[in-house]
């Protein structure tokens, strides 16, 4: 008897020996449950992320077993901690290096808005340089909150249309941040 | 060896440096003296090497900005005698227009980054420093942000206008 | 300011005149690199596997703490100190409170001092767990890290009982604590003293005589005491070289002079010795906590702050219902308190070394100048010079055993 829980199948038509659903939903399901995180940890929130990856909270339960330290093989960029203006180009570079589809979670007050550091040297939120999908509040957020952010992102990933990354709206979004789109 | 006292240090230093040493007081038992910028290297070497003083450990170097004073900047050194556990604070007041002082990296190697940090924040020029560059701030920054005339917040922010808050 | 400082441009390359004839490779490590556990950039020139020279670039999370501190009243600076060395925030918090108390001349009751000692030693253990655990990970032993991280979670639970937060604790207030330790907190501390030593023992046995670990660490990055003092090192890495400088002993604060503990020192100053010194310090911290608990039992119960209403923020329910408390609250928050114009330097033994606060006060609402003497900043500057001649893989171990915390490094 295994205690592995299977994720629920997306809505579709079921019959004897077959199951039909849309391609979006099937791919979304697969993507959502195998998000490979790229931890971009700069400060305090990174320590809480260590706790999240650790045995007590265990992010691996949600399909994020393998932290990818190479941007090329990651889907989910977790930005944890203060991003100073000196760091901003590095972060943007990392985002550009990631392959599509890519998602971003801003963990903590500093990554979301600059937090308590309203100073000349701190970037007031990473959404000034890259698009963000989920914001996790807290200074630092508890591991439960980080897990919640990942679960929220999974919902977004599940329901994302396959065509979204090719739409003019998406290209316009990236161009707003000055990021060149690769496929035309 | 007798326990080193602040009084002994004061007598010793005034005996050696005379007019160039000024005793600023002993706030919370930490002897504070000031000297002129031309003799700081000599004073620190003396404090480090003199048999009866032996302040062998450089705790910290920093600076303070007093915009209203005649001499705008104070460079502050904290030394520690680890043998007898006694600390001393040395201040050097510098002119505001082009604050310059000689480096102490040849006495303590650890002074390197402390001086770079002080330069980065206050623009104090440490003459003879091997690598006087900005350390914490971006190279492109063209002001010395810890000086009192500069604001804390980024003056170029566009999202904090009163307009957005109905003011 | 004269011109905008929002422009974002990448850093200049450090070695611009790289001669293609000398066959050296310039390698950029960082600022985000999984092996560095933080935002450190080192541009090194390597000859094969061996580092010839290196240049460190820091400041990637510079947040201008000292500038912020000039704009905040004393009690609002405590959350800033949390974010210096976030692996052991309570030491920073309490160090800052003690600096202000020294300035204001506040006498702290013995029981509060012992409570502070407990919290600080717990923080020291939590910090050393991270450092030694990560050193294990870097040598290839991941399991030990997961094992001790559970105990770290338990320390967080104790923090939560005491102050409600896990990592950035903002623990205590000027004059004491915001509330007494509750029963559960005391129970959990007792439980921690019970359950941690066997875990630590097992963790230690995993490494101490492990052939792989010894060959990776012993004799790596050895530092002589003279060099270490020349670079103003402090903390466990200085003690690993054999210098018994510990602020808790040489300038005792918080009644540390009443406690019976030893200062472990090493002989070679190499990575192995640093690991052993940190390990031994955890045992000493446990001893200190045990003694502090015994001492608290002898003190009158229920004392958790000094009787200084003009500096200690009153509890909120009193502010709402009690005229006097409201006045004090108003005075403290608006900064209309009588404070001496003076300057004070206070140092505590942080988990990484001497954490100093140099406070210049002009009697106003905020400090005139507050400078943090940050051990990580001072300790890290030797990294690039000492890496010359070292293997690249050894340099990574050296970095993780220095335990440089990015937040403290860049302030």
From TrEMBL, chain A:
Residues reported to bind [4Fe-4S] cluster: 44-45, 110, 139
Residues in NADH:ubiquinone oxidoreductase-like 20kDa subunit domain copies: 44-153
Keyword Oxidoreductase: yes
Keywords linked to the UniProt accession: 4Fe-4S, Cell membrane, Iron, Iron-sulfur, Membrane, Metal-binding, NAD, Oxidoreductase, Quinone, Translocase, Transport
Note accompanying the cofactor annotation: Binds 1 [4Fe-4S] cluster.
Compartment(s) of residence: Cell membrane
Catalytic activity of the protein: a quinone + NADH + 5 H(+)(in) = a quinol + NAD(+) + 4 H(+)(out)
Cofactor requirement: [4Fe-4S] cluster
KW Protease (keyword) present: no
SUPFAM superfamilies in alphabetical order: HydA/Nqo6-like (SSF56770)
Bilayer topology annotation: Peripheral membrane protein
Classification via InterPro entries: NADH_UbQ_OxRdtase-like_20kDa, NADH_UQ_OxRdtase_20Kd_su
EC number assigned by the record: 7.1.1.-
Pfam families: Oxidored_q6
A molecular-function term among this protein's GO annotations: oxidoreductase activity
Functional note: NDH-1 shuttles electrons from NADH, via FMN and iron-sulfur (Fe-S) centers, to quinones in the respiratory chain. The immediate electron acceptor for the enzyme in this species is believed to be a menaquinone. Couples the redox reaction to proton translocation (for every two electrons transferred, four hydrogen ions are translocated across the cytoplasmic membrane), and thus conserves the redox energy in a proton gradient.
Family to which this protein belongs: Belongs to the complex I 20 kDa subunit family.
Complex and partners: NDH-1 is composed of 14 different subunits. Subunits NuoB, C, D, E, F, and G constitute the peripheral sector of the complex.
Annotated protein name in UniProt: NADH-quinone oxidoreductase subunit B
Organism whose genome encodes this protein: Sphingobacterium bovistauri
Taxonomic classification: Bacteria, Pseudomonadati, Bacteroidota, Sphingobacteriia, Sphingobacteriales
Gene encoding the protein: nuoB
From TrEMBL, chain B:
Keyword NAD: yes
Main location, first listed in the record: membrane
E.C. numbers: 7.1.1.-
Domain of life assignment: Bacteria
Reaction(s) this enzyme catalyzes, per UniProt: a quinone + NADH + 5 H(+)(in) = a quinol + NAD(+) + 4 H(+)(out)
UniProt domain NADH:ubiquinone oxidoreductase 30kDa subunit: residue ranges: 37-154
Subunit text: NDH-1 is composed of 14 different subunits. Subunits NuoB, C, D, E, F, and G constitute the peripheral sector of the complex.
Record family assignment: Belongs to the complex I 30 kDa subunit family.
Function recorded in the entry: NDH-1 shuttles electrons from NADH, via FMN and iron-sulfur (Fe-S) centers, to quinones in the respiratory chain. The immediate electron acceptor for the enzyme in this species is believed to be a menaquinone. Couples the redox reaction to proton translocation (for every two electrons transferred, four hydrogen ions are translocated across the cytoplasmic membrane), and thus conserves the redox energy in a proton gradient.
Protein name: NADH-quinone oxidoreductase subunit C
Automatic annotation (TrEMBL), chain C:
Keywords: Cell membrane, Membrane, NAD, Oxidoreductase, Quinone, Translocase, Transport
Uppermost EC category: translocase
Membrane topology category: Peripheral membrane protein
Species for this entry: Sphingobacterium bovistauri
Single Gene Ontology MF annotation: oxidoreductase activity
Gene3D superfamilies hit by this protein: Cytochrome-c3 Hydrogenase, chain B
UniProt function note: NDH-1 shuttles electrons from NADH, via FMN and iron-sulfur (Fe-S) centers, to quinones in the respiratory chain. The immediate electron acceptor for the enzyme in this species is believed to be ubiquinone. Couples the redox reaction to proton translocation (for every two electrons transferred, four hydrogen ions are translocated across the cytoplasmic membrane), and thus conserves the redox energy in a proton gradient.
Subunit structure as annotated in this protein's UniProt entry: NDH-1 is composed of 14 different subunits. Subunits NuoB, C, D, E, F, and G constitute the peripheral sector of the complex.
Localization (cell): Cell membrane
Protein name: NADH-quinone oxidoreductase subunit D
Predominant location: membrane
Family to which this protein belongs: Belongs to the complex I 49 kDa subunit family.
EC number: 7.1.1.-
InterPro entries assigned: NADH_Q_OxRdtase_suD, NADH_UbQ_OxRdtase_49kDa_CS, NDH1_su_D/H, NiFe-Hase_large
Pfam families assigned: Complex1_49kDa
Domain NADH-quinone oxidoreductase subunit D: 138-410
Reactions catalysed according to its record: a quinone + NADH + 5 H(+)(in) = a quinol + NAD(+) + 4 H(+)(out)
Lineage of the organism: Bacteria, Pseudomonadati, Bacteroidota, Sphingobacteriia, Sphingobacteriales
């Amino acid at each position: 008897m295994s205690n592995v829980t299977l994720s629920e199948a997306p809505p579709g038509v079921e019959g004897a020996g077959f199951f039909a659903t849309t391609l979006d939903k099937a791919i979304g399901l697969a993507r959502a449950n195998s998000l490979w995180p790229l931890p971009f940890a700069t400060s305090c929130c990174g320590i809480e992320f260590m706790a999240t990856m650790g045995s007590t909270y265990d992010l691996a339960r949600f399909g994020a077993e393998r932290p990818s330290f190479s941007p090329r093989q990651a889907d989910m960029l977790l930005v944890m901690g203060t991003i100073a203006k000196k760091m901003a180009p590095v972060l943007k570079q990392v985002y550009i290096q990631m392959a599509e589809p890519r998602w971003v979670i801003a963990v903590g007050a500093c990554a979301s808005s600059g937090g308590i550091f309203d100073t000349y040297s701190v970037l007031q939120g990473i959404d000034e340089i890259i698009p963000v999908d989920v914001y996790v509040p807290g200074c630092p957020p508890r591991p439960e909150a980080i897990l919640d952010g990942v679960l929220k992102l999974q919902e977004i990933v599940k329901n994302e249309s396959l065509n979204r990354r090719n739409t003019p709206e998406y290209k316009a979004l990236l161009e707003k941040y000055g990021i060149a789109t690769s496929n035309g | 060896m007798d326990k080193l006292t602040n009084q002994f240090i004061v007598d010793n230093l005034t005996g050696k440096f005379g007019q160039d040493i000024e005793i600023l007081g002993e706030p919370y038992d930490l002897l504070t003296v000031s000297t002129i910028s031309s003799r700081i290297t000599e004073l620190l070497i003396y404090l480090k090497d003199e048999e009866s003083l032996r302040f062998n450990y450089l705790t910290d170097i920093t600076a303070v900005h007093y915009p209203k004073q005649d001499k705008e900047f104070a460079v502050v050194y904290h030394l520690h005698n680890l043998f007898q556990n006694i600390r001393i604070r040395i201040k050097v007041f510098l002119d505001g227009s082009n604050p310059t002082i000689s480096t102490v990296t040849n006495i303590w190697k650890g002074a390197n980054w402390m001086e770079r940090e002080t330069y980065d924040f206050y623009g104090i020029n440490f003459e003879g420093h091997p690598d006087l560059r900005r350390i914490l701030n971006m190279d492109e920054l063209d002001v010395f942000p810890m000086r009192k005339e500069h604001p804390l917040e980024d003056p170029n922010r566009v999202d904090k206008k009163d307009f957005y808050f109905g003011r | 300011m004269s011109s905008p400082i929002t422009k974002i441009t990448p850093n200049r390359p450090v070695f611009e005149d790289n001669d293609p004839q000398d066959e050296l490779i310039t390698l950029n490590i960082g600022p985000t690199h999984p092996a560095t556990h933080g935002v450190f950039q080192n541009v090194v020139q390597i000859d094969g596997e061996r580092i010839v020279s290196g240049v460190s670039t820091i400041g990637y999370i510079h947040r201008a703490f000292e500038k912020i501190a000039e704009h905040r009243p004393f009690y609002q600076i405590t959350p800033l100190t949390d974010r210096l060395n976030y692996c052991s925030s309570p030491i920073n918090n309490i160090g800052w409170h003690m600096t202000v108390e020294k300035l204001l001349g506040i006498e702290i009751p013995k029981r509060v001092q012992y409570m502070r000692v407990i919290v600080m030693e717990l923080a020291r253990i939590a910090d050393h767990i991270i450092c030694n655990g990560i050193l294990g990970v870097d040598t290839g032993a991941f399991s030990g890290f997961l094992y001790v991280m559970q105990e770290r979670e338990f320390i967080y639970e104790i923090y939560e009982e005491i102050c409600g937060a896990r990592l950035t604790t903002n623990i205590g207030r000027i004059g004491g604590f915001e509330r007494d330790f509750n029963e559960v907190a005391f129970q959990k501390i007792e439980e921690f003293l019970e359950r941690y030593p066997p875990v630590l023992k097992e963790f230690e046995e995993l490494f101490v005589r492990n052939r792989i670990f010894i060959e990776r660490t012993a004799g790596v990055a050895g530092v002589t005491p003279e060099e270490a003092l020349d670079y103003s090192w402090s903390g466990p890495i200085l003690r690993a070289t054999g210098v018994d400088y510990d602020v808790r002993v040489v300038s005792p604060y918080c009644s540390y002079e009443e406690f019976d503990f030893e200062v472990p020192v090493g002989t070679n100053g190499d990575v192995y010795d640093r690991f052993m010194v940190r390990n031994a310090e955890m045992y000493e911290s446990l001893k200190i906590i045990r003694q502090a608990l015994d001492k608290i039992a002898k003190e009158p119960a229920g004392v958790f702050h000094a009787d200084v209403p003009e500096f200690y923020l009153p509890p909120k329910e009193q502010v709402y219902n009690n005229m006097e408390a409201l006045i004090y609250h108003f005075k403290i928050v608006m900064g209309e308190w009588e404070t001496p114009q003076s300057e004070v330097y206070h140092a505590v033994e942080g988990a990484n070394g001497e954490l100093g606060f140099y406070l210049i006060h002009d009697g106003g609402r905020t400090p005139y100048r507050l400078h943090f003497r940050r051990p990580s900043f001072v300790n890290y500057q030797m990294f690039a010079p000492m890496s010359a001649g070292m293997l690249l893989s050894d340099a990574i171990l050296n970095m993780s055993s220095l335990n440089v915390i990015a937040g403290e490094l860049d302030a």
